[in-house]
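Notes from the 1:1 (GR / supervisor)

We went over the backlog. Supervisor wanted to see one worked example end to end before approving the batch request, so GR pasted a single chain during the call. The sequence is below; no edits were made to it. Supervisor asked that the structure be written out right there so they could see what the output format looks like.
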Amino acid sequence: MPTLEDQEPLLLSSPSCIILRSSNPIMIPAFRRRFPSTTTVFIWALLLLAFTASYIILVDPGSSVEKNVRLSAHVTRANGLSVLVTGAAGFIGSHVAIALKNRGDGVVGVDNFDNYYGRSLKETRRDLLELNGVYIVEGDINDSRLLSMLFDTVEFTHVMHLAAQVGVQYAVENPYAYVRSNVASLVTLLEQCKSAHPQPAVVWASSGSVYGVHNKVPYSETDRVDPPDTIYASTKRTGEEITHTYNRLHGLSITGLRFFTVYGPWGRPDMAYFSFVRNILQGEPITIYRAKNRVDPAREFIYIDDIVKGCVASLDTSGKSTGSGGLKNGSAPYRIFNLGNGSPVTVPALVAILEENLKMRVEKDVVDMCGDGDDSFAYVNISLAERELGYKPTTDLQTGLREFVKWYLWYYGKPLVEDSNV
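Structure output shown during the call:
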């Protein structure tokens, strides 16, 4: 039975989302050894043709890809930015790209459309981006030739690097995916940025997970964040060290954003709140973990619109890179910000809000967490972002979850079942 995220969504009802075997048998053995068969020649010709076509797509100045990239990168407001958004078909990336484009900035997206949670949702986000004038190049940012093509075509003033391998549990199965996507691709991108003329300012997605589970609360940017507790957190912490080095050596202006739990319409199906809605609608129980001291874990939930404001403000205040040809000509800004909401919420409280919005109740299996309960709270200090970015979350959980539930029911075409017990 396919899961909901693997099914085709219902889209028609909403205006917000408007494809020789021909060798001679008489040929003598000596001649056959010296010359390939017609089939072999044909296969090699096809391979050469495919390679040539792919090369033309990447480097031909008249190619449709380059034309689309130039059009998408066109700036329509005074002093507007020209931004490369990686992971543009992702949850946060798609929202940021649209917000930038709608205010008149030039935006080009790149995404590899991996199948971590299936392609269909990402492809629908791409359709939405194209309706808003944002073009996405499908490709891997580990591909230095692809990045060179993009930077040769557009003089990007900024890079919003949101591409990453996400999730904590998946790292147990495939740790190499995290190293490749979160470390190697970051280095490839920074190498391109340091050599660009002019160098762009870089804003990128770190994670609140770098604080681990034994840190004091509320989490502050000045806290020690060693050692990380998961592979995912390790790759993000490594990314912070790498970006700091490129800032010091090459004059790249770099801002790292430590995201906490981001939720909202067009969100990631692997997130807990997403699966809670699915379970409630399907009448399946929800597992809720509780600390051994019988304290309900509390987490930071931040609505997508508030995260977008933080990302855009980070771009606007990033300052300029100072390098040239990879050589540093002066100091450049290096910043780290927490982007949360400063108001942790327990999981039972979140589930209750979902039940209220769906007008259904769900069975809850309460399970004691492993460990001593030190990770019961994820509470973040956002005062630095408030002061430096003007960052101020305005969407409460009730409002944000209501918007998410409305989107979920529309996107997956699920009817809202009335329940008089709610």
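Supervisor's comment: Residues 1-36, 52-62, 417-422 have pLDDT under 50 and may be disordered.
Batch request approved.
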